[in-house]
Each structure stands twice: as structure tokens, then as C-alpha cells.
Amino acid sequence: MEVVSGVYQIEVPFPGGKGRYTNVYVLEGQDGHVLIDSGWGDLEAFSALREGLTREHLKFKDIKRIVITHIHPDHYGLAGRVKEFCGAEMVMHRLSAELIPSRYIATGELLEQVEEELSRNGVPMSELQGMRREALSLEQFVSPCLPDTVLDGGDSFSNGLFNFEAIHTPGHSPDHLCLYEPGRQFLFSGDHILPDSVPHVGLHPQSGDNPLGDYLASLQAVGSLKVKFVFPGHGSVFNGLNLRVEEIGRAHEQRKRDVLNTVRNDLKTAYQIAAELFWNDDCGEVAFRNLACWGKRMAVQESMAYLSLLVREDKVGAIEKKGVPLYLSKE
Ligand SMILES: [Zn+2]
Ligand SMILES: [Zn+2]
After folding, report:
1. What's the gap in Å between 257 CA and the centre of ligand 1?
2. pLDDT digits over 121-163, tens only?
3. d(Cα 218, Cα 206) in Å, to the nearest integer?
4. Ligand 1 center to residue 185 CA distance, Å?
5. Ligand nearest, relative to CA of residue 194
6. Measured in angstroms, how far is the CA atom of residue 9 from the centroid of ligand 1?
7. Considering every ligand atom, which ligand is closest to the CA of 23?
8. DSSP 8-state code for residue 272
């Protein structure tokens, strides 16, 4: 649907029909349309994108730029196929180009690093195997494609109608970009700001050492912008960015307290900490033991991100016992 003049939102479904969608945006312009994100890389997603374009009387051949907010499969997966189809210029953050080869082309080394890190943080072997299987199954949903043009934070581009400023917002993903249209006060927020959930931030080999610290700094960076409408990667277009930034900030403060409470009395691994907390999945709030393998992996990596920040803030101490990091509250 045309959510505001010249901006179309097409809902591209998640694999398996879970009723979840990635928002793909098409922005009309005299110098060709801009596609923001692509959705998952499977045929169902491609059909949904094609049908969405047809419904709005938009044509693939008019898409001249595909801009990717970050390289998660639900945003980047279909990009390679769309490019093949319409020959558009592929645009992403400079870091995306560095991360794609190890994440989607020659993946063995990164998978090993992830497993080693999870194992070191207490994840039992039986669960690691399930996590590996699910990680490998994700590869079928990405048709990898390197950028033709890379952006850094502060770069700008235009399609004759919309003028964009790229804002580097690391945290949810180290390469995450938000796109700001200052004249209209539009923010295309990808997964950095979502209306209905707190974006996942996890520590892993590609995340940098303090992804939650990065995320909170990025949250403040977009919170200071003048924005009338936020166009998120999932959920409905909304206004009231400042309020949402505050809500997300408060949710992280609460979660930091929850993590801290798990290590008040005993030294624990990140896995043990994650296992004591409740987590959100498609069914709402669930105990760790009821999460699927992928959800458990994200929960452990998210706990590690909180712990990394809490250690930096000197609220939690970390010691290593036989190579395994153990955490204890300093408060
Ligand atoms: Zn994402
Ligand atoms: Zn997403």
C-alpha cells in the first residue's frame, strides 16, 4: 500500500507462513525507484514482492537502487535475486561488504567460531548441534550478492524526489543503516527501531565487543533527529519516535537489572544466566527451556551482550575457570 505519497510498503512473508513479515519499501523518484530491503530469499517472498509491485502499478525495471539496511536474511536474503531480475545498483554499508563473504559465501570458519564461543559460554553439546543445523538451514534463504556501492554514515543520495542521509546505527547488526529523509522528516529504521518489540542485540564473532553499548549509542543518535514518521522493518509505520526511543531504553535498563539479579549470589556462565530468564518468541514470553534451538542461541548471545556491557560498567565481575567465563554481580 502507498503509506504516504510516493512511499509504498510491501509485506514480504517469513518462510513457513508464521504470519510475520518484513516491510519492503519502494520510493518513487524521477531517477528511478529505490527499494529499501528485500525480504527473505525464497520463492514465496519473491512472489509476494512481485504481487505487491503489480498491485501498486510499480515495475521491477523501474527499480534502480536496492538499499539494504543490514544483512540479516529477512532484509537481505532476496536482494541478489531482485538485482538479477532488474539490474539495480546494490547499496549497503561498507561493513556489510566485509561481513557477507564469511557469513554467506564461505561459512565454515564463522560457524566454527560461533560454536566455539557458545561452547565456551556453557552451551551443552546436544544444543550446539541443533543450533548448527538451524544456522545451516538459514543459508537457503539468502542469495548472496556484494554491493556495487558502499555507504558510510553521513553519506547521502537522491532519486530525484527523496534525498537520503545514511545513518550508521550499529548494535542490532554492526553494519546497520537507517535512512533519513530530512526534508520530509522520514526515518527508515530497519530493525534498529521497531514499534512492537525490542530489537535483538547479541554478542557474536561479527558483532564487535560491546554491541549493546553500540546499540544504545545508536538509539540516542536517532533519538535526536526530527522525525514525523518512522518506517520500520517490521510492523506498522508510526510517529512518536522519541517516545519509542525512551521505551526501548527503559526496557534495556530493566533487562540489565534482570541479568544482574541472576548473578547476585553465585558465579554463573552466560548459558546459566540465559536459562534463568524469560524470553519473547512468536508465542509471547516463554521460559528458556521452551525456546527452539535458534531462540536459545539468540538468548545466550543476548545475555552475553548484556554481560559485556555490565562488565564495562563495573557492575558485574568476570573470572575465567578452565577457559569458561563466569559472572558475579559487584553490587
Ligand atoms: Zn535484523
Ligand atoms: Zn528483521
Report:
1. 25
2. 999 999 998 888 887 777 889 999 999 999 999 999 999 999 9
3. 17
4. 23
5. 2
6. 18
7. 2
8. H
Chain centroid, CA 230 distance in Å: 16
The residue with cell 554467506 is 104
User: 191: CA distance to ligand 2 center in Å?
Assistant: 5
Decide the pairing of beta strands 163-168 and 89-93: unpaired
CA of residue 173 to ligand 1 center, whole Å: 7
Which residues are registered as beta bridge partners of 325? 320
Residue 51 Cα distances to 5, 15, 48, 152, 300, angstroms? 20, 17, 5, 33, 38
Rounded CA-CA distance 194/46 in Å is 23
Q: Is pLDDT above 90 for 17?
A: no
Q: State in Å: Cα 322 to ligand 1 middle.
A: 34
* Region at 270 (left for phi over 0; alpha for psi -120 to 50; beta for the rest): alpha
**Distance from residue 316's CA to the centre of ligand 2 (Å):** 30
Q: Which residues surround ligand 1, an ion (CB under 5 A)?
A: 72, 191
What's the CATH fold of domain 2-106+139-249? Metallo-beta-lactamase; Chain A (3.60.15)
When pLDDT is cut at 50, 70 and 90, the band that residue 192 belongs to is very high
